[in-house]
Structures are given as structure tokens and as C-alpha cells.
Amino acid sequence: MRKTLFLITGLIVCHLSTAQVERALEPESKVQTSHSVMIKGQTVPYTATAGTQPVWDEDGKPMASLFYTYYERSDISDKESRPLVISFNGGPGSASIWMHLAYTGPKLLKIDDEGYPIQPYGVKDNPHSILDVADIVYVDPVNTGYSRILNKEVDRSTFFGINSDIRYLADWVNTFVTRHNRWASPKYLIGESYGTTRVAGLVSQLQNSHWMYFNGVILVSPTDMGIERGGPVKMANYLPYFTATAWYHKQLPQALQSKDLDDILPEAEEFAINELLPAMVKGGYLSDTERDAIAEKMSYYSGISKQAILDHNLMVPTRFFWKELLRDEGLTVGRLDSRYRGIDRQNAGTAYDFDPALTSWNHAFAPAFNIYAKNVLGFETDLTYNLFGPVHPWDRSNETTGYDLGTAMRQNPYLHVMIQSGYFDGGTDYFNAKYSLRHIDPTGRMSDRTSFKGYRSGHMMYLRAEDLETSNQDIRDFIEKSKVMPDQPAKY
Length: 492
Prior knowledge:
Elements: E1 6-7, E2 12-16, E3 21-25, E4 29-39, E5 42-56, E6 62-73, E7 84-88, H1 97-102, E8 107-109, E9 123-125, E10 135-139, E11 148-149, H2 162-179, E12 187-192, H3 194-209, E13 216-220, H4 232-237, H5 239-248, H6 254-257, H7 261-282, H8 288-302, H9 306-311, H10 318-324, E14 332-333, E15 341-342, H11 356-375, H12 401-411, E16 416-422, H13 430-440, E17 450-455, H14 465-481
Parallel strand pairs: 7-10, 7-12, 12-13, 13-16, 16-17
Antiparallel strand pairs: 1-4, 2-3, 4-5, 5-6, 6-10, 6-11, 8-9, 14-15
Protein name: Carboxypeptidase
GO molecular function, one term: carboxypeptidase activity
Signal peptide: 1-19
């Protein structure tokens, strides 16, 4: 690897005294390095820029600074037709590290083929990165990663809430696109988990307040995004996820267990919509005979006992399911990826002690990014890289992001939406994601611009080697499908 380093401004200002060491973030800085990576058998040269860009207040003074990493393919000069992907993770309070070092970027953290951490920690080339077809910028919102508030007098509500988060990030994206001369480029937003709430709102805010139009939005393991559901609807929607998880752990009756996952999930979905949901809606007016029959069938599709289901009046919480499914084996299953198993302090109880998936991921990602930032990107700092930063209290009021995304699609005939979900994700389950997609477009008239992709993994489906390749290819195909021919008018 040939590496060239350009230090534009110092990132960290250190004031040393006998009393303390003050660590402060410069509003603007960047370090640029040159690299190459082999993607799909092709050598792709690129530049990596790690830096900070301000968030300004109404008087034009920096009130925060956001850390970003920007990857540009360096053997392509035509930026007008070169797609730009703007990437966010979620939380709220999560840095962009997850998709950056495990999904779409040119480097991957070292994990095994099923996503479990291995030592020594570090990174390797990503042969499936989308950098061959698009430039990518990974953005860390305020208090995540190396991003920090600069003006301590600014009210925290300026940054920490559904709608304030969208407003300041829209301004930041507008500045970034302008500085890097990418207004003509086909543009895409990708967000994971709470990041889907973020990008669903951002595409609307950027379109309506900054007049910046996008070709696509990719929702990875989406949240509810403010789309109304609750009670029986949400609870019935969990059933297909229960089926997928029970199938993985071989807890289903032989008649189901012997089938492939792709064959049994449509069955579970039909049962959830056509039988379980109406039964839940009836509540106490459901006859004993009906209740018993539904519980029996729910047990058949979930792998837990009929009695446990009856004890919950058919509405089984996910937290109980994670504790109950493998209780006989003294094990729990993960929330964010139910393939992962854990051991609690005691076998009794209605919820697990910890999520075995998340704890496994944390000790793979944190060391890898700190090594990568310093040794590969050449980014020097004494700040802690916050995988999860202090962003609370978070104002969750007035969330309409899913509906706003639908409105943005209707306003912009160029705009496409794709959802990517893992079947074993219990935090943002795949069938509720399908429900969201249906209600982003309740008329069904934009179905040619919406798509759903499912994978045999969890919340971060890309941690599984097979799904890493498939999911990145799905993004490539999505970008290709949403390209607009020259002189094609935006009209219905």
C-alpha cells in the first residue's frame, strides 16, 4: 500500500499543565491517505479522508464538530455520474463504525465467517465493498465517534431528539455535498437501525428545506419510523421472527423443522396476519376453544410451549421468548442476532441478563477501529471513539419519519427505497420491517420503486460472510436500478 499523508489542521489541541490535560476538538480538520483494494476481482484505487466539519449556529459560529470518513475512487474523474452514498448508524447514540468497518467500506474488521470476534484484532480488505460503484462518506453524529459539542452553552435539545437530529444533520450534509462538489451526483442515504429513522427524516428534510433530491434510501434493519402499529398488530408481527429463530435452533416440530426457512416463513406470515392477529384483536371475547386452538398453532410456529403462550394471553413479549426458547438447555438467545447464545446467572426469570450478540460485537469493533484510525487513516487523537455516546435525554416526540419518507417518494419520482433485514433480528424484526414498507406506500402505486431483501442473519446481517457478499450486491443492484437516464424527466 502506498500512503500519502496531508495534515490540513491539527485535530487535537493539547494544553498541558501540572493540573490537567485538556482535550478539545478542532472544528475543521482532515487527513488524506491513498490506498487500493481488490473488489470483485478488480483493483480499485481510492483516497480516504478522515476529518471534522462544523455544525454552525444561527450566527455562523461552530457549536459542534462531526467526525467523518470519506472514501473516493481515485481513477474516476466524472463526479456528475458517480453515485455518492451517505452512511449513518443508529442508537440513537451509535457511531458509524458498524457499517463502516463491517459492511460497505473498503476495510473489514477481523471476524470469523459467522461474525464472531477473533484475535489479534484489526482490519482486512473488504472484497465486497460498494466502493467500486459509489463513493461513500460515514458520518458520526454529535457525541458519537470522535464528534463533540464545541459550545457547552448550547442546549442539548439542539442535537438530541428525532427532529433536531434531522435538522442539524441536514445542514451538515448540505455543507459536505457543496464543499465536495457533489450536487450533480446521484445521491443515496443508508441508515441502520435508528439510522433508518434518521435517513427517512433526512431525505424529506433535505428535499423540502435544502432542495437536495436523492435517488435512493436504503433502510438496514429499520425501526418503526413512527408508522403506527401497536398492541395486537405489533405483537402478531413478531411471530414470523419467532419461527425463524426456533428453526435456526432446531426447536420446531419435525414437520416444519425439516423444511427450508424460505418455505416455512410464508406459512408463519400467513398465520400471523390471517389468524393470530384477528384472535388477538378479540382479546377477552375469544372463546376458550378458539384461544386453545390459536395457542396450539402459535406453539407450532414458535417453538415454545402452548401453556407459556396461554399464560401471556397469546401476546408473548420478545424478551420472554429470548429467555424461554432454550431454557431447557440453560441458554438464552440474542436480541440483535438470535443465532448467538448466552448463559444467565440463573435459569429462572422472564428476561435474559444480557444480549449475547451485542457483547460479542463490542469487543470486536472497538479495538479494530482504534487500530485502523491511527495506523491506516493516520488520524491522531487522544479522544475516546464513542461506539455509544451520551445523547440522552433523547426527544422522541412528533415522529413521522416513515410517513415523511413516503411523501418524499411521491414528490420525487426518482426516489427508490430498499429495506434489508436479517431474519434472526429480534430488535427490529423483519416482518415489522415489511409492515413498514407496506405503509410507507399504502396505495401500492410505488411498488416498482420499493423492495425488501431478507438474509439468514441478524441485525447486522453483513457480519455473516455469505450475507456480506449478497447484501452488498443487493446495494449495487439497487443503485443500478435507480439510475436515471440522461434527459429523463421527473414526472408521472
